[in-house]
């Protein structure tokens, strides 16, 4: 099966990497050629890391890279694809337009999947003429490392398509988990309120950034504290998902903390902007609390 991946950012290049490594011919699509070039550089670096750890041979690395092709044209990139995985920015209007275009250009039998972490698969499917072939494949970051794929069934997704996507996920060495299409699915419905509560705990002065994260790491065996994890995900992404939960479920418990809203408005988005709850310096792995939150 040929696979097309739309979006060459962190998630898109990770998804393309994993499919190519497991023998699939992959078309990586982005409107921006420099972004595609950066994505290939990232995939190459990640493959080099696997070679250095002796989990991949040089021959397997070369074979993986040979299966990757890049496209700036959606129409050309999805031609001949049996599966399309959309991994564009988490913006509902953008995703709906992409799926309208995919319905026009992708082969009639192709499965159309979205890597969305919160947007309704049913809503996405409704803009196509093949809602039974639309499904969610929510990979976790970093894709080459994390085992989970949250497989989300839209209202009209067929049993056959769901089973095929579950089987494909296993072929990638992943562990697929089937969930139904409700706001936040499972992963973010549970994770985002925890992150939000950690931000509220900071906002109300219960404890500092480092203290909150230490309690969760040492007391709850989390590999990363919720505030560090929020920085890693992107505070803008966390806010967008909380708003989907709040609007979709109508429950005030999902309302985003005012501190989170202010940080996003101020451009303090976490690791990708250089500052969130922690300060990030290129080339440094030290975890330094942002000056604003130092006690």
Automatic annotation (TrEMBL):
The record marks 138 as: Important for catalytic activity. Residues 184-280 form the 3-hydroxyacyl-CoA dehydrogenase C-terminal domain. The keyword Protein biosynthesis does not apply. Its EC number is 1.1.1.157. Keywords: NAD, Oxidoreductase. PROSITE patterns: 3HCDH. The keyword Oxidoreductase applies. One of its GO terms (molecular function) is 3-hydroxybutyryl-CoA dehydrogenase activity. It holds the Pfam family 3HCDH. Residues 2-181 form the 3-hydroxyacyl-CoA dehydrogenase NAD binding domain. One of its GO terms (biological process) is fatty acid metabolic process. SUPFAM superfamilies: 6-phosphogluconate dehydrogenase C-terminal domain-like (SSF48179), NAD(P)-binding Rossmann-fold domains (SSF51735). NAD(+) binds at residues 7-12, 30, 90, 95, 117, 141, 272. Belongs to the 3-hydroxyacyl-CoA dehydrogenase family. This is 3-hydroxybutyryl-CoA dehydrogenase.
